[in-house]
């Protein structure tokens, strides 16, 4: 798969042309960081995200257009003006989605995740903020591959990766994890996140209401640990 590296000089485009282009595409700008270690980490993340987005194509994945590295790291994708699923759900509260709509959205998400997993990719940050509605608000597409990783049998991957409220309990220990600690896990972490999103689609409620993201994640981890301890007796 060829990666299209775009050379974009916004100062030469002029405000009218730049506005017209940005009205058709969406851009994600990643800054390079302030230290050499941070720059190296961000550049690796950028290259990984571009590589994965450029080789997976599906109707329920945001379409990758191109990327450029200088003067800023920029990823250009199709524009989805229908807002995020998070904003949409919030806008209709306290009403619920029609069941048919909720099921159709869930199927869109499931198809996107199935395609990623079939291509050996774990998204690791599935949540309503990363699900974007199409203009007619009848379909959703998965976006943001910044935390996605290729799944391998032997690789140890970083623990506590993603957004706490939607993270699978196997990413946690019942003791505080050291920063950057590595753990074995697989694409089932995305399945857990999908379950949380599905619950939101059906109830239009925030999961673990009344808890912070971190409290919600560790509450789930401790609950499972306690259940496993009871079963082992």
UniProtKB/TrEMBL annotation:
Query: Which GO terms label this protein's molecular function in UniProt?
Result: ATP binding; protein kinase activity
Note the SMART domains from the entry. Answer: S_TKc
Gene3D superfamilies noted in UniProt: Transferase(Phosphotransferase) domain 1
Annotated signal sequence range = none
Every Protein kinase domain range: 1-233
Family matches, as InterPro entries: Kinase-like_dom_sf, Prot_kinase_dom, Ser/Thr_kinase_AS, Ser_Thr_protein_kinase
Q: Which Pfam families match?
A: Pkinase
Coiled coil located at which positions? none
State the name under which the record lists this protein. Protein kinase domain-containing protein
Q: Which organism is it from?
A: Glycine max
């Amino acid at each position: 798969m060829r990666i299209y590296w775009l050379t974009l000089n916004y100062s030469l485009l002029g405000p009218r042309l730049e506005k017209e282009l940005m009205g058709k595409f969406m851009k994600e700008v990643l800054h390079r960081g302030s230290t050499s270690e941070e720059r190296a980490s961000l550049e690796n993340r950028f290259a990984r995200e571009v590589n994965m987005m450029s080789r997976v194509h599906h109707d329920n994945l945001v379409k990758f257009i191109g990327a450029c590295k200088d003067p800023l790291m920029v990823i250009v994708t199709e524009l989805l003006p229908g807002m995020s699923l998070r904003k949409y759900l919030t806008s209709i509260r306290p009403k619920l989605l029609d069941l048919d709509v909720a099921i159709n959205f869930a199927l869109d998400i499931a198809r996107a995740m199935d395609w990623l997993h079939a291509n050996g990719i774990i998204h690791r940050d599935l949540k309503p903020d990363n699900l974007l509605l199409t203009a007619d608000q009848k379909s959703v597409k998965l976006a943001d591959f910044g935390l996605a990783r290729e799944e391998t049998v032997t690789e140890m991957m970083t623990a506590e990766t993603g957004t706490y409220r939607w993270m699978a309990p196997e990413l946690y220990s019942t003791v505080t994890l050291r920063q950057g600690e590595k753990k074995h896990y697989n694409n089932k972490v995305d399945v857990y996140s999908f379950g949380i999103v599905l619950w939101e689609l059906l109830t239009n409620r925030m999961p673990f209401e009344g808890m912070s993201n971190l409290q919600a994640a560790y509450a789930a981890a401790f609950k499972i640990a306690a259940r496993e301890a009871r079963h082992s007796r």
